[in-house]
């Protein structure tokens, strides 16, 4: 089947538009979810996140089951990875989220709403991520990667089930039913969440966007002569690519990730204008700016080490049921916990 080679980028833009709109209207954000749950006991937003993961897992695994996407071609299911780097990168990213008062995807949504703090966060994150992936910090990252990476026999939850004697299809179905079903039960066990139709719709929509992006890159983009990288919603590397693209566009081409980033900002902006939520916000003090830049730098470096962010690993990576993604996501949550409740607790200076 032949498709216009640019259609994947158009789909990335469309997916970003929807994510930006839903993200603004629902307040979808891991940090806000955990802050509300641990701080005030309001568990609705964390259930939205759990439902989004559940839907993403089931929809993605169904696509893989029927050969619409080869998840083995993604960065999440590579035969070797560094467990320490995954966890430590996630830890840095999670703590950086608290310092910057939001993750990479949330910064894109807030920028569209007029939050100028997010512009500083995104530029800093993009530069430091490039430094970690390809620049000054890259040699140190690669040295740690080479010293600590391993090639375990089991790299995913379905593969773990296969060791119990299930065939590949049965193992995939069992894994998505247990993990996805467990997350869905956790979400709907909360009475207030069951009554929050807007949050339910947000969780389902974002979960389906993850699967939709897999379909776009893994099936529509699977050209025999010019295939696009098999990926889905992730923001650290795409933000870094976007920063580079706006400076060197004549020598670069638009990718799915760049289109996705632009779509999120535009979707949030249009929604903010229509709903009357657009307003310009800035820093309240130089100290606030320093803290924000520091958090963005940690997110850029940590996200590059962990190969993703709270969405890139916490949603997209986990949707592949890769063990490395669960490890990175755990690091992100632990980093959030350290910043919100631990000995290195960060006191919020302003709400996002």
Q: How would you summarize what this structure contains?
A:
The protein has helices at residues 7-26, 30-39, 44-65, 83-100, 104-112, 116-133, 138-148, 157-162, 168-188, 191-194, 197-220, 236-248, 256-275, 286-306, 312-319, 323-340. The protein is mostly helical.
**Share of residues in strands:** under 5%
Describe the largest sheet: none
State the helicity in percent bands: 55-70%
Number of domains in the coordinates?
A: 1
Low-confidence stretches: none
Secondary-structure-based class equals mainly alpha
User: How many E-type strands?
Assistant: 0
What does this structure look like?
Helices cover 69% and strands 0% of the residues. With 352 residues, the chain is mostly helical. It has one domain (29-340). The longest helix is centred in the middle third of the chain and has 24 residues, at 197-220. The relative contact order is 0.25.
Topology (SSEs and partners):
Elements: H1 7-26, H2 30-39, H3 44-65, H4 83-100, H5 104-112, H6 116-133, H7 138-148, H8 157-162, H9 168-188, H10 191-194, H11 197-220, H12 236-248, H13 256-275, H14 286-306, H15 312-319, H16 323-340
For the structure shown, list the relevant keywords:
mainly alpha
